[in-house]
Amino acid sequence: MTIDHCFYIGYISKTRGLKGEVQLFFEFEDYMDLDLDLIFLEVNKKLVPYFVDAIKLQQNSTAYATFEDIDHIDKAQAIVRKKMYLPNDKMPERDPEDFTYKDLVGFLAIEESEGELGEITHVQEMPQQFIATVDIDGKDAMFPLNEDFIVGIDPEEQVIVLRLPEGLIDMYLED
Length: 175
Description:
Low-confidence stretches: none
Oligomer: single chain
Number of strands: 12
Strand order of the largest sheet: 1-2-5-4-3-6
């Protein structure tokens, strides 16, 4: 199995207790819908399969899990900070009507008074809101995605029109 045939779901954040239990942190939005009986961990740039013995999903994008053959904290310590993947065929089906801010990656951002800003390269969820990143002349310009600033979204044309606070984009254009 190679990374090309998988999708990223998160990483192992820390050990828990002495019997090999670990905490998983999910960066995949719909982690509750995932089939987690087999997880691939990236070890030395290769994907290694780990069979899940038990898993307890939490509401805060985490879970506690035990894996086959990992029955001691020393063995668990070896997989901490490893990235987790699942095969592409285990990607949960999503209703096309369920549009999220993360779907805006690749969209062209246009500010009403500034004009074309560029393509959205990243959308990050922060505690209070989502933040979009656009590359403007080699600089990462960031702005909040919220209903007050979004004039319209055209999913067909992959365009988002914004009305951002005055001076926000100027901040990134100054040398």
